[in-house]
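Human:
I keep going back and forth on a fold encoding question. Comparing notes only helps if you start from a blank page. Show me how you would write down a chain together with its backbone fold. Write it directly below this note and I will take it from there.

Assistant:
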Amino acid sequence: MADMDNEINRTTWIVIYGITSDGVKFRPSSWAEMLIEGVGLTSFGRDHKIHYTRHIWTILTNGNAGIIMNGWFKHEQPIAFAEIMRFANNNRLTVNTYNNTIALL
């Protein structure tokens, strides 16, 4: 992760995909929501829906849960960012960084 730390700035997007380095779908399917909630980055809104803190969202790509974070998140929530990256590393999840723009289809 040390090399990645040097690459992350406020125009970077970090995507954690729910696929392990072995190509296996990570379970449970709600891992992304549980992880974000577990590090204290959610609130329950007046609309009775869960809201995430700025610069982090759950995603669904190819039927797999994931997390997308903007580089600002690392600077605003360094402890939560480190915990999420530790989780991804420990579970051998696929992590990609993108600079400036990102398009998810």
In short: Residues 3 and 65 are 25 Å apart (CA to CA).
